[in-house]
Design the sequence.
């Protein structure tokens, strides 16, 4: 049996399919299980995953449509029995690509917030989106359309190469970090769909870094490709932090593995920390923490329980706020330093 997984969204969503992927391959060990991605970092993240037979990277965002269609024709020749749009994939483009691949059965969710022109009808089999259920479980329900899953889903999976491990070991030694309490921060976020408003303020991150450094004799590692933002936070911390990320995504993953604590907005790095069982403080604004909390790792969620939150749903519509002026996106602005600091103390102790 040939199966294709369309992991076309970012690293966080792609990573939350990994428990379902493992269950699927363990249930059908003789199947061919391929993955289609459009972000290089997702391809890197799954490159060493033993449950994927082949990864196809198509640069839909940066190459012309003729080349993309030619590469899709190669996929059609594999004659897939099933193709799966991982959860969430609530866009017309994802449904159209699933149709073009030409699998006999095309699996996707039926979303609560959708409309006719997203063309869900181009798929053949559906799972109803369930509110307040974690993304991992939503993905397992997709796999249940292919095989009856008996086992509970395990943790998220990121597999590192020996080279990744060796490089990180040297990096830790070079920066005198081998005997330090390492605390990772991801203060950034995607800019797509107005998600800059998921970011807790850089000033609060910097002050949090100072306090944690003093209390726990720790070292702050700054993650993410928002290098300018990380430089600003480092300056506000009097250059006490270390920029941990490089342009190679797996450098970040290998270094994150050694953190004793991770503090992050709702981003892919939050879920990456969970994949390595790092205790995690998740700072949530308008997204639904019940669906996105760090899976199967010790964690504390810090958020404001406002009547209007969560207000962002799985759709292409950008985040907007009903409040205006200084109160706009107050769900993230009103989270105080002491609240996050107390969460950190609870986990690091």
Sequence:
């Amino acid at each position: 049996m040939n199966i294709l997984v369309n992991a076309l969204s970012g690293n966080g969503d792609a990573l939350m399919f990994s428990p379902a992927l493992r269950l699927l391959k363990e249930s059908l060990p003789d199947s061919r299980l391929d993955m289609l991605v459009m972000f290089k970092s997702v391809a890197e993240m799954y490159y060493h995953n033993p449950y994927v037979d082949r990864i196809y990277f198509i640069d839909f965002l940066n190459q012309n449509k003729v080349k993309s269609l030619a590469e899709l024709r190669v996929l059609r020749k594999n004659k897939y029995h099933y193709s799966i749009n991982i959860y969430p994939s609530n866009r017309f483009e994802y449904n159209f690509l699933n149709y073009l691949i030409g699998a006999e059965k095309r699996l996707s969710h039926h979303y609560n917030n959708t409309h006719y022109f997203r063309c869900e009808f181009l798929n053949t089999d559906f799972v109803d989106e369930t509110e307040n259920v974690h993304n991992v479980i939503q993905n397992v329900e997709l796999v249940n359309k292919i095989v009856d899953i008996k086992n509970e889903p395990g943790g998220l999976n990121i597999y590192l190469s020996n080279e990744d491990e060796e490089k990180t070991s040297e990096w830790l030694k070079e920066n005198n970090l081998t005997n330090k309490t390492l605390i990772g921060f991801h203060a950034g976020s995607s800019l797509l769909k107005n998600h800059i408003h998921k970011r807790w303020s850089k000033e609060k991150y910097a002050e949090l870094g100072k306090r944690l450094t003093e209390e726990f004799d720790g070292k702050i590692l700054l993650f993410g490709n928002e290098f300018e933002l990380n430089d600003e936070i480092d300056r506000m911390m009097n250059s006490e932090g270390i920029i941990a990320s490089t342009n190679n995504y797996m450098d970040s993953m290998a270094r994150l593995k050694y953190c004793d604590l991770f503090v992050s907005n709702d981003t892919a790095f939050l879920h990456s920390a969970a994949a390595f069982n790092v205790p995690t403080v998740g700072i949530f604004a308008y997204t639904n923490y019940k669906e996105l909390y760090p899976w199967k790792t010790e964690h504390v969620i810090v958020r404001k329980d406002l009547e209007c939150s969560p207000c962002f749903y799985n759709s292409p519509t950008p985040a907007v706020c009903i409040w205006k002026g200084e109160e706009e996106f107050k769900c993230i602005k009103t989270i105080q330093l002491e609240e996050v600091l107390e969460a950190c103390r609870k986990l690091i102790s």
